[in-house]
Amino acid sequence: MRSYKHLIAKSLLIASIILGALGTTASPVKAATVNNALPVTDTTATSTDSSTSQTTQAGDPAYSNVSVDILSGILTLEQVPDFAFGSTMLGSTVKLQSNVVDTTDMSSSTPVGEDGNSNGVLKMIDSRTAQNNDGTGPGFSLSASMTKLNPYVAGDKSLDAILHLSSLPLIDQNKENIVFKSSDADLKTNAGDLDSATASDPTLINLQSGTYRAGVIQALFNTSDSATLEIPNQDNDNTSGTVKKYNAVITWTLNAAPVVNP
Fold first, then answer.
1. I need a labelling partner for 210 at 20 to 30 A (CA). Which of 92, 134, 241, 252 fits?
2. Where exactly are the structural domains of the chain?
3. Sign of the CA dihedral running 204, 255, 32, 130
């Protein structure tokens, strides 16, 4: 788990061109684990474990462990999503197919995202509280940018692409919207276009102080309408009569303060 005022994570975007497929590797982070340490015994009758020479009588207590990390006063970027778009062509736009990426046969020189997960989860935990201490968060922002589509095979030409991310609900661990006042409109991510040609870095989340409940904050990019990949027509001699795989790396940047609206 990492906690920084300015935190960056990278996920992998993969496309094969018939040009062909967009995706990422999984690296889930768990904030809590439960370890069961109960020995395998029959508690309804007397039994002896010959390997430990320990006897458990009926009615005797047994013990297990519960482990959890409690965060306080920090903002963390827990998970970022990978994207897989299957096969497509130059001059086309394709919807998200899955969040599972196959990096088999990828060249060692091809950039690879290190933090992406295969469930499409974008997740933060804000354990800070606003000055009024009413359970709301003090605000933060999240932006993202994407590299060019880089070929799996070294020496092939890179391609420009645009990843279009939809506006999605911001929810907690119980899948409930994080908006503080139920009378206010549900909070969502901002729709954004990650254009490799212009190195755009749109603000995808911009939460203002006092508007949201602190705690787990997540968005799920795991449906076909949550993201699309556009690959404009461009000069590329390497795709004629071939199927080639490409990937891009998305950089997610979390800032501990919201963007001030003009």
1. 252
2. 6-29+68-255
3. negative
Q: Encode 236-260: b = buried (16+ Cβ within 10 Å), e = exposed.
A: beebeeeebbbbbbbbbbbbbebbe
Range in 97-111, 118-132, 229-243 the model is least confident about: 229-243
Nearest-angstrom CA–CA distance, 59 and 39: 15
User: Which tokens sit at 89?
Assistant: 């062509």
CA distance 88 to 181: 43
Q: What pLDDT, on the 0 to 100 scale, is given for residue 10? A: 64
Taking the C-alpha atoms of residue 96 and residue 170, their distance in angstroms, rounded to an integer, is 19
For residue 247, give the 3-state DSSP assignment: strand
Whole-angstrom distance, CA of residue 89 vs CA of residue 229: 11
> Shortest CA distance to 163 belongs to which of 105, 237, 102, 81?
81
